[in-house]
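Support case: user asked for a sample of complex input and structure output to validate their parser. Sending the pair below.
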Amino acid sequence: MTAIRKYWIALIFSGFAAFSYAQDHHGHHDHATEHHDHAAGQPADAHAPDSTAQHDQAGHADHGSACGHSISAEQPFNAGDNAVHHISDANVIHIFGETYLNLPAILKTEKGWHVFSTSALHPHHHGNGEQAHEGFVLVHGSIMRIQGGVMADQDYHIEDYTHQEVEAGGKKKVVYNAVINGQCYPLEAKTTYDGGILGGGVTSFMDFSITRNVFTMLLTVIVLFLLFRAVAVAATKRRGEAPKGLQNFIEPFYTFIRDEVAKPNIGHHYEKYMPYLLSAFFFILGLNLIGQVPFFPGSANVTGNISITFVLAVITFLISTFSANKHFWEHTLWMPGVPAVLKIFILTPIEILGLFLKPFTLLLRLFANITAGHIVILSFVSLIFILGKSGESTSGSIMGVTASIPLTLFMMTLELLVAFLQAFIFTMLSATYIGTAIEEPHHH
Amino acid sequence: MLFLADFNVLKPEPGLLIWTTIIFLLFWFLMSRFAFKPIGAALKQRENDIQSALNEAKMAREEMSNLQAENEKLLAQAREERSAILKEAKDAKDEIIAEAKERANAEYKRKVESALQDIENQKMAALVSLKNEVGSMAVEIAEKILRRELANKVEQESYAKSLTDNIKMN
């Protein structure tokens, strides 16, 4: 009987959720229409392909034709785009509705450093800024620069953003444009080091801003530090006494890393590496867990960003490489007891490759696991929008919510496990690499 | 197309790389200095304390069992001693009794012997006195016979006979 009642409550709740979402969507729709009307009121309409403005700005855009589709125009819901948008880093933090936490922007261009608050970019719906500041704009929460460093003399009101596909060097590329005073200005993204493989590359500016990920990292680090400091103070004060409160929560982690990770893998020199292993474990665990919180200040996909896992893997690589002993190098570069030909052509190249592959797998594993978890959860949440036809069908939304809640719940539980597991695996493998590097030769 | 182009979690960015490095190194330094070190030291001390307490308990237990064993040994020894003493006492008793018996026997023998000696002596004395008596009696009888008239021979003989009968009666 009580079980049935529980289901009823869940059903009613999901109905409300779907209904309120549908309402919200209608509000959004109205807003979008208003936005369009507003844009239409301007002398040049960027959406009209045959307007004179399009021809006027031909000099700015690579293509002489239209500067693409408005990104604020209504498009069918795309779960993939939605997921990518949510797992990406951003220069503003979306709290709720139209409320954003404006983070400091620190940008480096050929003209020097640009430091300002992202509030200067007037973040608005979907993290798109309504104002250009020092030639920078905000698209989908990310800072972009108007190409060629133009429009940097003052703040400009941005009417709209468009995106279009252009061909550059035989490759198709998506270019975003900002529409200012009816003119289209192509934008460029910040510098990334993917070598152009993923559509990024070195551009005219670098973004050193406190982004959502940096903010989350700082927050996590501060919370962890306060937590551990409290435990450390308690442990020092209650020396020789039984542990109490928080100590009982934190100390098992410490002993776990020491007894299950450091000691068996590193051996009796383990104590030297304990601070790093513990720092890496709690840093990753803290970020994994805060990333699971679906609302502010959580939800940032920090450990699912390759830049973060890269840094951690590089530190592990440096530690293991610099603490490696003669025995390790001998076995890596010139394995005793193997014919020289085999060593030169097979073994040594493989071993050298392995040196770099180990940290590479380390960074990829953590990144892939956390990003995948975020994407799956976002996909399940997207069910509500897909089945509800983006809010047009309330009954569809109810169906979506009923399907989505248990699936998301399941996934979040699994992700909780993954959060611990991946932090553990990263630490464990780091300890293994260090252990292999400092292993003493066995005398048979 | 849009998907991959915007998949910027896979693109290393200078800003994030720098910030992560700074934040993580700072975290590492601060945590190891102000958190892990004191926690580790406290844990180590507690573990040592627990270990030493356990060792002490073990030692105390061992000592206790040692003591107990010693006690038992002492008890057994005491028991043995007691039985030895008892045995000794018994032996002494037996010896005393035997000696006493012997001495008693000897005394008895001596007494009997001296009694026999006495009897012998008495007998000798009696014999001597008897001899004296018989002598004096014979003299007396002879006197009496002599004093009587020796009329007839029969009377004489009966008289003599009555005299000897008198002697026998003595």
